Amino acid sequence: MIKAYLDDPTEPRSSEEATRLQNRLMHVSRFATMGEMAAGIAHEINQPLTAVANYAQACARFLAAPAPDLEEVRLAVHEIAAEALRAGEIIRRLRQLVGKQGGEHAPTDVNELIGELGVLVQADARLHRTPVRYELEPGRPRASVDRVQIQHLVLNLVRNALEALDGTPAGSRQVVIRTGLAPAGRVEVSVSDNGPGAAQDMITRMFDPFCTNKSDGTGLGLTISRTIAQAHGGTLDYRASDAGGACFVLTLPPIEGSGP
Length: 260
Hints:
Elements: H1 2-6, H2 15-36, H3 38-64, H4 70-98, E1 106-109, H5 110-115, H6 118-127, E2 132-135, E3 142-145, H7 147-164, E4 175-181, E5 187-193, H8 200-203, H9 221-231, E6 235-240, E7 246-252
Parallel strand pairs: 2-4
Antiparallel strand pairs: 1-3, 4-5, 5-7, 6-7
């Protein structure tokens, strides 16, 4: 889709050039996504770092007492270690998503893949004052995917849903991430909201490059997301949400030989 829009008809690109262009676009999009999330991520990292400082100061007070309470010191040190690991986990998730290279396709538990996004989703959800609910298929659906690329796709859909709710009263906002199994063993991942939904004139062209209704948007997020889905042999489509807003559905083929 990107290739068809960007190719010069007088000078056809090779498939290798098109692939390199697609990878560069996805890389730029990942950085843009992380940049937009900076405020939320800074808040998330600041919390464990503040806790580390507070516990360290408490240790100093305990040890300065005439009769130091070593049990209190031990508990404070334990909390310091836990909060440091929490901050490290946030940074690790960021590095994984921003990393330029993706891994090879591999059989993956889709519920687990989405669960790994929890810290980043939570950061942005707090920034937008919107709860995000998970409804994950208990059968642990599996698909052969590039983990980083699919996580980037899902994160982009979640961000779009949160932004779509900015005009909705804070107390009634809702975003739902679902996983499930479709006919023929296909795996579905959907992100829905209860916002205003897409305008009728946007529905037929929302996946076109540079199509956006955001004043500061690039119009490449959904284009790149659909390209990632197609590269996995899947689809990415829009439909109206049951809650009245928008719903984007990613469908992935089953792992060969694992169908019902």
